Amino acid sequence: MSKSYIIEVGSESAGIVVRDRAGFRFFSASQRFSSLDGRLFRSARDAERAAKNRALSKKPACPEFVKSLRRALPKLPF
Predict the structure, then answer these.
(1) Is residue 36 within 8 Å of residue 49, measured between CB atoms?
(2) pTM of the predicted protein model
(3) Helices (H), strands (E): how many in the chain?
């Protein structure tokens, strides 16, 4: 069984998924799919479905600074 897969939506490269112990980790190939970057999926097929849904979605991809804020917020003392 392969350990990595390229995911394409139409003729656009969405990213790759790499198998690890917990499932398949998504690495985006373009800004359009950055909201999926780093997400863990149970299967490569699930990651492909998520990329297709992302391509059909009207809302913009999550900007990088929002991701960094989300990572930092739990560390801030409130």
Answers:
(1) no
(2) 0.70
(3) 2, 4
Band of pLDDT at residue 43, cut at 50, 70 and 90: very high
List Cβ neighbours of 40 (8 Å cut-off, separation of 6 or more). 20, 22, 23, 24, 25, 26
Which residue is it, tokens 């990595």?
Answer: 4
> What strands lie across the sheet with 23-28, from one edge to the other?
4-9, 12-20, 23-28, 40-41
Q: Burial level of 3, CB count in 10 A (0-12/13-18/19+)?
A: exposed
**pLDDT above 90 (res 71):** no
